[in-house]
Amino acid sequence: MRSAIASLLVLLLVGCGSAWNDPYPASDRGRNILYSAFTDRPKHLDPVQSYSEDEITFTAQVYEPPLQYHYLKRPYTLIAATAEAVPQPRYLDEQGRTLGEGVDPARIAFTDYVIAIRPGIRYQPHPAFARAASGEPAYHSLSAGDLPGIVTLGDFKLRDTRELTADDYVYGLKRLAHPRLHSPIFGLMDEYVVGLGDLAKRLKAEKDQGWIDLRQHRLEGVEAIDRYRYRIRVKGKYPQFLYWLAMPFFAPMPWEADKFHSQPGMAEKNLTLDWYPIGTGPYMLTENNPNARMVLEKNPNFRREAYPCEGEADDNEAGLLKDCGQVLPFIDKVVFTREKEQIPYWNKFLQGYYDASGISSDSFDQAVQVSAGEITLSDSMKAQGIVLTTSVATSSMYMGFNWLDPVVGGADPKTAERGRKLRQAVSIAIDQEEFISIFQNGRGIAAQGLIPPGIFGHREGAAGINRHSYDWVDGQARRKPVAEAKRLLAEAGWPNGRDARTGEPLVINLDTTATGVGAKARIDWLNKQFSKIDVQLVVRSTDYNRFQEKIRKGAVQLFYWGWNADYPDPENFMFLLHGKQGKVKQSGENAANYQNAEYDRLFELMKTMENSPQRQEIIDRMTEILRHDAPWVFGFHPKDYSLRHAWLLNRKPSKVGHNTLKYQRVDAALREQRRSEWNRPVLWPLLVLALALAAAIWPAWSGYQRRETATAR
After folding, report:
1. Do strands 507-512 and 536-541 pair parallel, antiparallel, or not at all (unpaired)?
2. What is d(CA 589, CA 606) in angstroms, rounded to the nearest whole number?
3. pLDDT single digits (tens) 68-103
4. Helix (H) or strand (E) holding 295
């Protein structure tokens, strides 16, 4: 009995100094590891297929396209990654003759980009490069029968590397046309990359082959000039093409890896490029269990790259330049754990087991406080040394009117003016500021046009407001009163929400995919907004596939939609209302089917221009046309709020540059100290319970001992 109590006391005392709730192995404590979480499992990790935010978190750390974005500069600036420099365009006419700078874009038949790759860059270790003693590839002639003991890529004993070459970029680009990969950008790139569509047609004949050796198929517009240089030829003038060269779609792919992963039996074991990416980037994926855990580890062959020494004006004060010139990456390993629910994610962040976190609606009030319109950290967050970072996303959320609809549209000249005033009235009545406050926890700014802050063409202050919906009062934009919306509605022929000729009420149908409790609250709020101008709103909820079909057919009046920038250029937003992008007639991205001849003419001028005062002037004119015609109810640009612990350094939000893990740094010693402080087990209740139990059983135990002693005598 005495020894049992003594052992318990020893155990309790030993446990006082360590956390019992640590979800990670004890061997990882104090190591240079970043801990993060993901909620949605990635579906594709193949660079020509992957196109979602939950996937690029991983792919951008492994694959290296030739260009990247400067980590600190805003507006976003392209710089070289594996390339020697950002390539300069060379303009050609139909005969292939070089044209000078400043030439009329109409004369430009082709644009050549020659990309020079830095020598000496090497791939991560991979079994595809391994060679047997004979010098032949060790794993290029496998069958399904050779794989019974192989479960993961790590089960292959041999691995090697080789140098990155221009041919790898050419091979990777050809994969956009692969008949089994169905790249989401093939259709767009077919419009620009010379010969890509022709290659796709030829490759269809080999669709059923296990491996298509793309080295044997010529792509007219893409060729390797020598070991370190390759050329891409695009149709016409398309300056935005450079932004695509910073995306994983244009990353290199060694033919050895493509052949290795295409062998019989590989797909059945998930030993594919869609499961195991291969690249020259700072990290390599060493564990892929998308239902539970993903692990990135430092690539031992990563090229030498230094932390930037310049950025925005506030970056120095924020400590973002302290590592100027230091060799990247700083972190050895990144562990991602899947968290399907927000509450466990949030609690583990507060315990220090995740290094950073977003702020969900459920935890918003716990994390931040609002005072005089300013959002700051709550006292409890400050006490833990947590840091708040905010940034406006390069996104636009909006409600679109169907331009082809006879009531809310503008395609029919006879009713165009009536529809325009109706759309403007609705735009005024829907209080975006209130929506942001109620449903976004204040995380957003009301949109005055298509282009969000941080993108060239956006204007701040009085010069940037939509004067059809706002007035500039006391140094800020103020929404026009409901009386103005009612006046416009009456001028449109709908006084008090009724047709002036027939007396019939005005009914507008809103199509949405939103369901659930939160959706009902938003719909109730929207109904109140429309009721302010006596308009009846009918909400038609449907599943996503049916909604998409209705959008494609133009069988809607009003709908919710949004857009995230593919790249930081105004063309990537203004094209959303370009007539040639009409959803019904052209199957494009113009879901509103809006068409305005002057807007389209200006768009054709603007899209090929470099950023300049002249381009800004054209964008201003285009923006004013949209404000006047009101094909959208301009909604809001989301504001991202993120939290990080004091030990996570060099973290700056970026919505277009995703290869950011290499810049971040962890103070592992500080993290270990804080975790120990925040998770120290409270053991005195257990001690009290143990003593109480001992006191309760002591009389029985001592009596038993006396009887045993008496019997022995």
Report:
1. parallel
2. 18
3. 999 999 889 999 999 999 999 999 999 999 998 889
4. strand 293-298
pLDDT for 419-435, tens place per residue?
999 999 999 999 999 99
- Residue 296: strand, helix, or coil: strand
| pLDDT score recorded for residue 217 | 97
Give residue-wise pLDDT tens across range 607-643: 999 899 999 999 999 999 999 999 999 999 999 899 9
How far apart CA 396 and CA 623 sit, in angstroms, is 14
Query: How many other C-beta atoms are found inside a 10 Å radius of the C-beta of residue 572?
Result: 22
Measured CA to CA, the distance from residue 541 to residue 514 in angstroms comes to: 7
Q: DSSP 3-state assignment of 391?
A: strand
Q: Which of 573, 575, 565, 583 is nearest to 657 (CA)?
A: 565
* pLDDT tens by residue, 231-261: 999 999 999 999 999 999 999 999 999 999 9
E strand or H helix at 648 = strand 648-649
Backbone angles phi, psi at 296, to 5 degrees: -110, 135
- Identify the residue whose tokens are 């204007």: 459
Q: Please tell me the distance from the alpha carbon of residue 423 to that of residue 86, in angstroms, as a whole number.
A: 44
Question: For 73, what's the count of Cα atoms within 13 Å in the CB-facing half-sphere?
Answer: 13
Can you tell me the distance from the alpha carbon of 326 to that of 311, in angstroms, rounded to the nearest whole number?
15
**489 to 57, 371, 496: CA distances (angstroms):** 47, 37, 8
Contacts of 503 (CB under 8 A, 6+ apart): none
Cα–Cα distance measured from residue 700 to residue 512, given in angstroms and rounded to the nearest whole number: 72
- Residue by residue, DSSP assigns 302-366 as PPP-B--S---TTTTTTTTTTTTTPBSP--SEEEEEE-SSHHHHHHHHHTTSSSEEE--GGGHHH
Distance CA 435, CA 413 (A): 33
Roughly what angle, to the nearest 10 degrees, separates helices 2-15 and 684-712?
160
Per residue in 113-149, pLDDT (tens digit) is: 999 999 999 999 999 999 999 999 999 999 999 999 9
636's CB contacts (< 8 A; 6+ apart) are 397, 432, 435, 436, 440, 444, 445, 446, 447
In sequence order, what DSSP letters do the residues of 75-141 get, joined into one string? Answer: S--EEESSBSSPPPPEEE-TT--EE-TT--GGG--EEEEEEEBPTT-BPPPBGGG-B-TTSSBTTSS
Packing angle, helices 597-606 and 613-629, rounded to 10:
160
Give Cα separations from 50 to 43, 44, 46, 60, 505 (angstroms): 8, 5, 6, 10, 48
Q: Indicate the helix (H) or strand (E) that contains 35.
A: strand 33-38
Q: Are 671 and 645 in contact (CB under 8 A)?
A: yes
Cα(176)–Cα(203) distance, integer angstroms: 11
Q: Give, rounded to a whole angstrom, the gap between the first and last alpha carbons of the chain.
A: 22
Q: 3-class SS at 376? A: strand
- CB 388, CB 376: distance < 8 Å: yes
The b-or-e profile of 594-630 (16+ CB within 10 A means b, else e) is bbbeebbebbeebbbbeeeeebbebbeebbeebbebb
Name the residue among 572, 570, 606 with its Cα closest to residue 589. Answer: 572
Beta strands in 543-644 (DSSP E): 558-564, 632-644
**Gap between the Cα atoms of 2 and 4, Å rounded:** 5
Are the CB atoms for 277 and 253 separated by under 8 Å? no
In 3D space, the residue among 88, 75, 258, 295 whose CA is nearest the CA of residue 175 turns out to be 258
- Residue 526 is encoded by which pair of tokens? 């929207």
| Per-residue burial over 137-159, b = 16 or more CB atoms within 10 Å of its CB, e = otherwise | bbbbebeeeebeebeebeebeeb
3-state secondary structure of 259: helix
What is the rounded distance in angstroms from the CA atom of residue 282 to the CA atom of residue 306?
12
CA dihedral over 590, 567, 124, 30, signed as positive or negative = negative
